[in-house]
Design brief:
By secondary structure, this protein is mainly α. The chain has two domains: 206 residues, no CATH class; 235 residues, no CATH class. Helix 1 runs antiparallel to helix 12 and helix 5 runs antiparallel to helix 6.
Length: 484
């Protein structure tokens, strides 16, 4: 059984990596092309609306997807009931936001937002149509289907958006990319997935899931309100242009951070749920995930800090240079995110959704205090407080991991410190090379190469566990390929 789970996990991780990496590459390429055609103000207009889409997604899902994954023998009645609830909630929310559009426009003093809201928020019911299909694929480790759907949908939506941007349609190209992605994903998930809802609705299913999912909903709402609140604050007090700079900086640091988070999250939660009754095994799997995240997140984020100026000035053009300080600081908070999400899923798999809710409330009180103190002091002060909030969140997660799993600060530091020290040393040495090079183009081309060589070379010489495991997996795959 353990070997079968390991094989499923490895296969799922490969497809999850292909899916998330492919998506982020699409976002990166399309984002660079769009950013060179659009203004920071265009991005600011869409950026201030993301909180409404994120909150709607939490309310529509209502934590039922996690409950369905966690339930070992979910029935057709369970899936159908949740599907109808998802669709009903999404329609109600779209109606409310449609009516609220004029008030949103007045709040930000941007009249165009009325029409942008009413079109962009169509993603809410579209996303609801494919939630159960995605849940089933994730539960049964069929991530190759999700990868195909996501990549095709994003590719088509991005091509449409780029064509519209070159056609001079401005902010509407960003709206089209978001809306097109949701539309094509909904269509393709229904085409490539055999599941269809039946005319069944069981209140017993909702009651069964509610105790677990209600805590997830509240914690999700709290988390998303505060995670997405910065664009609203910046938009209200500093204008759409500064909001555009912030959202772009956050978007590009998040490409790396969320890539790593999503790769591991798509596999970790189902695996954690399957072994939730064996705490020793669960701890081993958790520690292995922590080391794997550390192997990737530290070097990637520190490298982006080193090459931040040429990265943005060359790829996005000079108009985006004011976002560089925001980008550098946000990279440090991005280091913590994958670890926090991993522990969040760990606690959910153990049934401690109430604990996650309590943690979110405590952390958000701390974040709100900082926002109240520094909202008028400048954007850099707000981002600095966000970094301290991220560190505190990670520390709180490790504290409770020790309590429930016996995985404390000492073991965590032991797991991540080799990768952090090596990544930091590689960054310092790469900065020396950076200063010696004559132009930003040379820096952007050569410094990442130097950094990767230093990091991987150091990992090989120090025989760090994660590199050794990946090399071993690669050798075994090559060997099997040769035998075939």
């Amino acid at each position: 059984m353990e070997e079968n789970l390991k094989r499923k996990t490895t296969k799922a991780l490969v497809w999850s990596t292909a899916d998330k990496l492919g998506q982020q590459l699409f976002y990166l390429v399309a984002g660079i092309i769009l950013a060179r055609q659009l203004s920071p103000e265009d991005y600011g207009k869409v950026g201030v609306l993301t909180i409404f889409i994120a909150l709607s997604g939490i309310l529509i899902d209502s934590g039922f997807s996690s409950a369905l994954i966690r339930k070992k023998e979910a029935t057709q009645a369970d899936y159908s009931t949740v599907f109808y609830v998802n669709v009903a909630i999404s329609c109600v929310l779209y109606g409310l936001l449609y009516a609220a559009a004029p008030y949103i426009a007045v709040f930000f003093k941007v009249p165009d937002l009325i029409y942008i809201c009413r079109i962009l928020f169509l993603v809410i019911p579209l996303n609801a149509l494919s939630l159960i299909q995605q849940t089933l694929l994730l539960k049964h480790f069929k991530l190759f289907v999700s990868a195909r759907v996501n990549l095709w949908s994003l590719g088509i939506a991005s091509v449409v958006a780029i064509a519209m941007a070159y056609g001079g349609m401005g902010v509407w190209s960003l709206v089209a990319q978001t809306l097109g992605l949701s539309l094509f994903r909904a269509v393709f998930f229904w085409v490539f997935n055999d599941w269809r809802p039946r005319w069944i609705f069981r209140m017993a299913s909702l009651r069964e899931f509610f105790g677990y999912s209600s805590n997830l909903v509240v914690s999700g709402i709290i988390n998303n309100v505060f995670n997405k609140i910065y664009p609203i604050i910046i938009g209200k007090f500093y204008g759409m242009t500064q909001t555009g700079y912030y959202t772009q900086a956050d978007k590009y640091q998040d490409i790396a951070s969320s890539l790593i988070s999503n790769i591991f999250r798509s596999v970790a939660f189902p695996v954690f749920s399957k072994v939730q009754d064996d705490l020793q095994r669960l701890k081993r799997i958790c520690r292995k995930n922590v080391r794997a995240i550390a192997f990737f997140i530290f070097p990637i984020m520190l490298l982006m800090v080193v090459v931040s100026y040429p990265l943005i000035s060359i790829m996005l053009k000079e108009q985006w240079v004011p976002s560089v300080p925001y980008f550098r600081l946000l990279c440090f908070s991005g280091i913590c995110s994958p670890f926090i999400i991993l522990f969040f899923d760990l606690f959910n798999s153990l049934g401690y959704s109430r604990l996650n809710l309590q943690l979110e409330i405590g952390k958000k009180i701390y974040l709100f205090a900082g926002i109240a103190l520094f909202y008028s002091s400048g954007i850099l002060w707000l981002i600095g407080w966000w970094i301290s909030y991220s560190v505190l969140s990670l520390a709180a997660s490790i504290f409770f991991a020790r309590r429930f799993l016996g995985y404390g600060f000492g073991e965590y530091v032991k797991d991540v410190s080799p990768y952090f020290i090596l990544a930091l040393a590689s960054a310092i040495l790469s900065c020396g090379v950076y200063l010696l090079l004559p132009s930003d183009l040379w820096r952007l081309c050569l410094v990442p190469v130097v950094y990767v060589v230093l990091y991987l070379g150091g990992a090989y010489m120090l025989k760090l566990e994660m590199l050794q495991e990946m090399l071993s997996m690669l050798k075994s795959r090559v060997k099997r390929g040769g035998e075939a």
